[in-house]
Amino acid sequence: MAVKKISFFVLGAQKSGTTYFHGLLSSDERISLPVRKETHFFSDNKGKFDNGLSFYIGKYYRHSSGDAILGEIDPEYLYFPKVPKRLYDAYPNARLIVLFRDPVKRAFSHYVMNYRRGTEVFTFEDALRLEDERISTGNIDEQSRFSYFSRGLYAEQVKRYLEFFPKEHMLFLRADDLYENPSDVLIEFYKFVGLNPRALPDSLDIARNEGGMPINMGVQRFLANESRLKTLGKSIVPSSLRLGLHRFLETHNRRHGKFPEVNKKTMDNLRRHYKKDLSELSEITEIDFSDWL
Q1: What does the pLDDT read at residue 221?
Q2: What kind of architecture, by CATH, is found in domain 6-112+152-211?
Q3: Could you report the per-residue pLDDT of 174-186, keeping only the tens digit for each?
Q4: Which helix (H) or strand (E) holds 97?
């Protein structure tokens, strides 16, 4: 039996509406997404990628019907340099979609997510200062977790894809357009991947990622420690229920409260550092990002 083909990948960026977009596409029976959101298969360096495409399809798309087109949404794919070639070698005809968010707001949202999860102990300013040191260790988890500034260098990341894929295989979108006009963005997406744009999801009122601070930071840090949670979970919880349990505990250990504060000078400095990259991104994508400068 031939291995199923993936029609599209939504590459990111992280904290730029990919969860909301996933919710919208999940309600469309013509599209099949992985049983696990964000497989990290093509960004993997721990042996999973070495299992090959048959493993990838068999593990994450075993539920797919014959008529549905297959796609994946994973914000790690835009950031990690190894991914473009891996995707091209596997699916050279795939369509690629990128959601961009104001990189300054994205960076702080990324920081708040980590702070809320209990994986960040520094102030935002100190975390930015320490970023190069923390992501240069070669540890993929630390690169993913602490890449606050570098993930917002969108032009750099897009250019890596353009070394392999033609520009007409890429669709560039603004996250604020997705939130403000989801129907228009979905129509554009459907046309891009070859689906009937008139058949929109029954409901566009999909919940977005909500924030909130942990009630008990000790519980939150335990949940953030994947190896410890897996060790305990294997002894008492089947693997099929482990992810759901993690989400349940994280959700019920959250309350709406005051987020960490950041001063205006920090945000202004970030905006200056992103200016050159955003200008280049505008040239590449032919989208106006001047309101982010």
Answers
A1: 46
A2: 3-Layer(aba) Sandwich (3.40)
A3: 999 999 999 999 9
A4: strand 95-100
Q: Is the pLDDT of residue 41 over 50?
A: yes
25 versus 223: the higher-pLDDT residue is: 25
Return the SS3 of 286.
Answer: coil
Cα–Cα distance, 92 to 84 (Å, whole number): 10
pLDDT attached to residue 262: 82
75-108 burial string, b = 16+ CB within 10 Å, else e?
A: bbbbbbeebbebbbebbeebbbbbbbbbbbbbbb
Burial annotation 254-270 (CB, 10 A radius, 16+ → b, else e): beeeeeeebeeebeeeb
124-135 and 103-117 helices, crossing angle to 10°: 90
**Short-list 56, 70, 73, 60, CA closest to 14:** 73
- pLDDT tens for each residue of 69-89: 999 999 999 999 999 999 999
pLDDT in tens, 263-275: 899 999 999 999 9
Find tokens 């007409």 and name the residue.
168
Q: How far from the centroid of its chain's Cα atoms is residue 138's Cα?
A: 20
Q: What's the distance, CA 213 to chain centroid?
A: 21
Phi, psi of 171 (to 5 degrees): -115, 125
CA-nearest of 245, 292, 284 to 268 is 292
Please, are residues 97 and 192 in contact by the beta-carbon 8 Å criterion?
yes
**pLDDT-wise least confident of 25-39, 95-109, 124-138, 223-237:** 223-237
